[in-house]
Request: fold
Amino acid sequence: MALIDWHSHVWQPEHFEPSQGEELTTRTGASLDAGPSVHGPAVAETADKFVVIAMCWRRLGVHVTNDYVADYVRGFGGRAVGIASVDPADEDAPKELERAVRELGLKGVKLSPTYAGFDPLCPEAWRVYETANRLGIVIYWHMGAAYAIQSTFENGNPIRLDPIAREFPKMRQVICHIGQPHTAETVLLMRKHDQVFADLSARFHRPWQLYNAIMLAMEYKVTDRLLFGSDFPVRPSLKAAEEFRGINEAWGEGVHLPRIPADLIEEIIMNRPFELVWPDGV
Reply:
């Protein structure tokens, strides 16, 4: 049993154009000061293992580079996994992804149709999926809601990933934030495709949304593919775990709702090993 934080970020102000940095801090409350010295106490020194995710949203002026993430996770050995990010609109996106995996040692790729503003079924994106499938890596998806004014909600429904899951049945995929607000669609996709997972990052401070998503996942019997994540710097790992453990009491006294079983909460936090997504090891 180990606490694995499946979703965290390391970044510094220079990774954001000024207007986008201001929008991030104003609209989400997340800090731009989330470099190694801050991530360490919040995640690396408290979680047994953790994932750090790069971001490449060129249209918004956000670029937490693959090299930056690779340099950071390298110092933790097998305790840390780095996830690359590329922009499908870049002509050399497949080549950069190959470099990030083969030369930098990153173990997956983060894509966001919502933030990067692309149709997930466009030919440019399909080249990235083919590369990811050939490399045997996982795709992390940011679908659904986003903070940025120029994000594209029309690209974000997780149902749009169904053709990709059908075409690449062996390629594992993680839908971040359980695809909120499209949590039902994410659960249906998980029920249909065994290679699809969802992380619960940045949901613990929205308990009603999280509660309903987990109840639906229980009904569809896919809770074994729900992953714990903090989305640091949104939350430190232990704070996110504390909020998750308190979800049944979030409504206050006098409210009687079906409870999420405490053993299920502990299973999600403490029993989701890396081997679920990387069966051959990291």
